[in-house]
Amino acid sequence: MNVSAWSIRNPIPAVLGFIMLTFLGVMAFKAMKIQLFPDIDLPTVTVTASMPGASPDQMEAEVARKIENALASAQGLKHLYTHVTDGTAIVSAEFRLERDSREALEDVRSTVTRIRSDLPKEMLDPVITKVELSSKPIVTYTIADPEMTEEELSWFVDNNITKLLLGVKGVGAVNRVGGVTRQIRVELDPARLLALNITATEVSTQLSKIQQEAPGGRTDLGGMEQSVRTVATVQTAEQLAQMEISIRDGRRIRLDQIADVSDSNAERRSAALHDGREVVGFEIVRSLGASDVEVGNGVARALATLKQTHPQVTVERVFNTVDQVYETYKGSMEMIFEGALLAVIVVIFFLRNTRATIVAATALPLAVIPTFAVMYVFGFTINLVTLLALSLVVGVLVDDAIVEIENIMRHLEMGKTPYQAAMEAADEIGMAVIATTFTLVAVFLPTAFMSGIPGKFFVQFGWTAAVAVLFSLVVARLLTPMMSAYFLRPRTLHATPKWLEIYLKWAQWCLGNRLKTLAMTAVFFVGSFVLAGTLPTAFQPKDNLSQTQVTLTLPPGNRFDQTYALAEQARHIIIKNPNVTLVYTAIGAGSTGGNVFEPSGASDVRKATLSIQLKPREERKLRKQQIEDQLREALMVLPGVRFKVGLGSSSDKYQLVLTSENSELLSQYALKVGQELRTIHGIGNVVSNSSVLRPELVVRPDFARAADLGVTSSQIAETLRVATNGDYDQSLAKLNLPDRQLPIVVKLRDDARQDIQLLSHLVVQGSRGPVLLGSVASLSLESGPAEIDRYDRQRNISFEIELAGQPLGKVQAAVLALPSIKNMPAGVELAPIGDAEMMQELFASFGLAMFTGVMCIYIVLVLLFRDFMQPATILCALILSVPGAFLALFLTHTAISMPSMIGIIMLMGIATKNSILLVEYAIVSRRERGMTRGEALLDACKKRARPIVMTTMAMGAGMMPVALDLGVGDGSFRSPMAIVVIGGLITSTFLSLLVIPVVFTYVDDLIEWMRSLVKKFSMARAVH
Question: Which segments cross the bilayer (predicted)?
């Protein structure tokens, strides 16, 4: 059935159908969420186990290994990553992507529950969560109020702001950074404890038993039922100080006789500073599936409402990714419109007919807008990936309409009426239009089925591009011929353009000099691949955003005040850079700008993160990487600190990981590797977690003395833990206030923890009475690992190498060429972790997608042309498109990366379109018009050159704003795709118009030779 003819005869159904599709598309567009990246389902589950006070060695032996061994047999497990720090072990189980994430979560949960009895009883219950892309903050604010103390401001954030913002649609969590936490401090006097022979544990236990409310059953008094409640609580720190507690020998003492009791704050372990000013920060995390822009705007409106009720409060935004999301969205939408406008200008330039241009231009919105309806049904969002698909196919969408309208215009010039021209031209070009569209679909759709994490992202890319192209086909076959039949006017014959006459002479020369043509093409093709070998490779291009970070890590053992001082020293250095406008410092807490794939873990007082706001792109001359190089050089003066420059979530680093079961061999060899890594030219800092030792106070019991006095190791450890750090949170007594509970923390005075002699005089309760700690144990200062990293149940040491603007592939090649890496000893291996692994996976996936695309194109062409040989001619266009892509990358100094690979895939489909138009017309001319091969080819060149050049220029013009990065926001991710497509279009169009006719003749000769061979064989059999 000829749908174009049906639509011309019955225009109303087609018009009504597109009105309905457009309406559905607009409604879907309004309802869709705007995000930076799609919320992909990653089957990665994290187990966080905490045991306050435990050393990393202890956490590894008693917790991490047991959890790893239990999870090792989980179905579909790919890798286990473990990070152990002081009191915390984080085990991340990465499952294969085909595993359902909810099933993986339940599997891990049941496994950990099964082994809970094997884990230390004093360990807190493990927290099991699924890794989500939305788990990192999208915006960070600071708050200050001159009328509130720091404690009041911290509670204001915890209570008022958290309640307010959690009521905003899409907000998943609000995390406070900095500030202080109110608590009742019971600071014991070690001398009085010694005089009374009591332990800190006894005091803490007594308080938790006395200071409580407890249910007491039920009574029936006076004919009514009453509940019984035991109320044994005090309301203030003063009342608590007057409380009497009993000690072992039967005496009673008041609490204030052995301790200073105060309503104070917990020990300071974190801080937030805004340009050096102490503030309280809070981070906003969106919930899964929510829109970044909607959440950001909702939070801003809620905080504006807060400002009206609390005018003295100053709230400032210091870090956000919402602007980046909105700029990406706005820039992509602008480029879609700019590309559409440029494509329309190309049509006007060639056709020089306003009505024909309007008909062709109508195809763009009618192909794009209904696509949103299908995206909405599929559950897609408006994000970088889907907008990328639309901005790249914007030039393609008008192609089918251009081919249709150009053919109709040519028939009009023959003297036909618009109705007759539309009927005949649409029928003539129909097969070619269908073939070109389905080849594009055959190219785009395989990207939706790519493997690995990149494949998860490109599901939405492949389907969005394929659906938009299919809608363009529907428009070209239903609406364009129908509009042409009723809207165009008769047209007189126009003179042949001069460029077309020149081209026909070239085509005739190529057909007459076939070997020379192919030889020159082969030289160009081989030369381009030699050129490609010199191109750098990267996972993704370097961004030019206006935000970056500096992460400081001090040696283990440094205190909070030392980290604070060094962070301020770093801030003074950073703020001197003329391109820096704001510095937000988070010490010991916060996950702003972190990598979603890396677990944040517990806070650490020796770490500080400085989030830096740069001038907008248009106000600075330097790219972000150049500014980061300046900061890196300036920060070299900082003494005794490891620092990293760059956002944790960006591709600014190369990660090298060594694994081994022999921890001593691993540590020794890692030193050698680290030395060689620092000799690589052009890289930034090399940061390693090897040989990071922290000072420890090691208590070793004298087993004989301890047994004689009835003292156990458990009693010694518990006495020290409570005395120096306080009891576990769940065991602490609580002071009830109208709006909250305050923990009552019993421990030694801060100064008492600085004297090892004093600690040795702590009292430990034995079965024969209290004894001094020093009489049953020795105390000594030693060292142990501050952090332990494990990969697939083996110890590992990681190196983070700052790329400093270098391509990832180049740095990787330099690293793998080092002698220490090439000649590793037995027992030490490289672990495939990080962007390098993803880059290899990406290139392999794209290679498979390209091969699948080529096979799909061939199958489509065989089905449409009913021929196995001539589709091979069309596929030659793929070879002719690649040299231009590599040449464009070389001239623009662009690396081969994820976006440029997408561009090459897209180029395959576009290049095939040109060949189809030529070959299809030549075949039809020979079959139906009785032309010779040479006449048919030259006729095809004459009739099809204009639509080929028009579609090429329309596509090139449509992608030019993307290539030149003219839109709002950072276009560093989009630009390489367009560069590849434009470069490939230029060479493939030029070469297709000249080389494809030559290839056609060779394929035709091969077909004739095979036919003659079959004929001779048949005749020979007939004779015998």
Answer: 12-32, 335-351, 358-378, 384-405, 425-445, 457-479, 518-539, 842-865, 872-896, 902-924, 945-964, 976-1003
- Phi/psi of residue 918, nearest 5 degrees: -70, -55
Q: How many CA atoms lie within 13 A of 485 on its CB side?
A: 21
Structure tokens at 327: 């700029």
* DSSP one-letter code for 543: P
State the residue range of the domain holding 587. 546-648
The mean pLDDT value of the chain amounts to 79
- C-alpha 126/C-alpha 116 separation (Å) is 9
Task: Return the axis-axis angle of helices 870-891 and 898-929, rounded to nearest 10°.
Answer: 150
Higher pLDDT, 974 or 137: 137
Residue 33 in this model has a pLDDT that exceeds 80: yes
Task: Answer whether 285's CB lies under 8 Å from 134's CB.
Answer: yes
Tokens, residue 990: 């030029």
In the chain, % of residues over pLDDT 90: 1
Which residues have a Cβ under 8 Å from the Cβ of 458 and sit 6 or more positions away?
385, 447, 448, 450, 902
Asked if residue 38 lies in contact with residue 119, where contact means CB atoms within 8 angstroms, the answer is: no
Among 648, 677, 708, where does a domain finish?
A: 648
Other Cβ atoms within 10 Å of 71 Cβ, number: 21
Domain presence at residue 660: no
**What CATH code is carried by the domain that includes residue 525?**
1.20.1640.10
Comparing C-alpha atoms, which of 987, 966, 989, 962 is closest to residue 976? 962
Question: Do 897 and 842 touch, CB atoms closer than 8 A?
Answer: no
Decide if 93 is inside a domain: no
pTM higher than the cut 0.90: no
Give the end of a domain, one of 785, 812, 842.
785
CA distances for 240 relative to 183, 196, 749, 758, angstroms: 13, 20, 18, 26
Contact (CB, 8 A) for 470 and 441 = yes
What's the full length of the chain, in residues? Answer: 1024
Same domain flag for 1007 and 912: yes
Q: What is the pLDDT of residues 550-595, one digit of tens each?
A: 888 887 777 888 888 888 888 888 888 888 888 888 888 766 655 5
- Pairing assessment for the beta strands 741-748 and 182-188 based on DSSP bridges: parallel
The rounded distance, in Å, linking the Cα atoms of 511 and 23 is: 51
SS3 399: helix
The one-character DSSP state at 973 is: T
Q: How many domains are contained in the chain?
A: 4
Residue 383 has pLDDT above 50, yes or no: yes
Give the CA distances from residue 933 to residues 929, 936, 1008, in Å, rounded to whole numbers and listed in that order: 11, 5, 12
Statement to judge: residues 503 and 595 lie in one domain: no
Q: Kindly state whether residues 959 and 981 are assigned to the same domain.
A: yes
What angle in degrees, to the nearest 10, is found between the helix axes of 354-378 and 399-412? 150
The answer to whether the beta carbons of residues 869 and 1007 sit under 8 Å apart is: yes
